[in-house]
Amino acid sequence: MREGVDDKPSILPVSDLRNYNEVFKNCRAGEPVFLTKNGRGRFVVLDIEDYEKDRAEKKLLVKLQEAEEAVADEKGWMSLDELKSAMETLDETKD
């Protein structure tokens, strides 16, 4: 959250979407707006940059998890001889 900004999250009833401009005024970068229905959390309105950042972070975490699993299973690792052979094969396909 930004300094000097109220630390309380913005929580509004979903019925406030009738006046969606007011809802959007509450939605700033780094500060999602939580919408409730019947007093329970139902939706979140995010700034598009925050949404894209969250998606990118999720993709990165998935890739990191895959890499950790590959290291644990020793998959994806090549010996020096296997690497040399792969590079020779690659060079041959270029010619």
Features:
3 helices, 95 residues, 3 strands, elongated, alpha+beta
Quick take:
By secondary structure, the chain is an alpha+beta fold. The chain has helices at residues 20-26, 48-73, 80-94, and strands at 10-13, 33-37, 40-45. It is built from 3 helices and 3 strands; from the N terminus they run E-H-E-E-H-H.
Runs with pLDDT <50, length 5+? Answer: none
Name the helix and strand elements from N-terminus to C-terminus, one letter apiece: EHEEHH
Percent of residues in helices: 40-55%
- Neighbour order of strands in the largest sheet: 1-2-3
- C-alpha Rg (nearest Å): 24 Å
N- and C-termini, Cα separation: 56 Å
Identify the overall geometry: elongated
Can you give the mean pLDDT? 83
* Biggest sheet features: 3 strands, mixed
Based on helices, strands and strand pairing, what is the structural class?
alpha+beta
What's the β-strand tally?
A: 3
Descriptive overview:
- The model has no long low-confidence stretch (mean pLDDT about 85).
- The chain is α+β, with helices and mostly antiparallel strands and about 100 residues long.
- It has a 3-stranded mixed beta sheet, covered by helices on one side.
- The chain has helices at about 20-25, 50-75, 80-95; strands at about 10-15, 35, 40-45.
